[in-house]
Design a protein that fits this description.
mainly alpha
Amino acid sequence: MGIFKSVGEKAKGAASAAASKSQEMVEVGKLKKKISNLEDLIGDSKMKIGELTYAAHVEGQELPISEMDKIYSEIDQSIKEIETLKVDIQNVKSGTVIE
């Protein structure tokens, strides 16, 4: 009977490891989706800067610096968030708890 107990324990261990890996993959997927959303936001922000620049050119006006500075800050913040999320992904993969 000892052999069945040993096999059962190994099976439970394997199932537990599979569940843990599955949870890791789900968490990493969520973090990657957040990164993708932020990258889309950065792209949209860069497009807006281009539109503002071109509109000022066409209208012969000065660049709307204060509006552009706000967009630059949003881009900078998104980049910082992406870097934090990349660290979070590494922490999940290494088994480190994210606080």
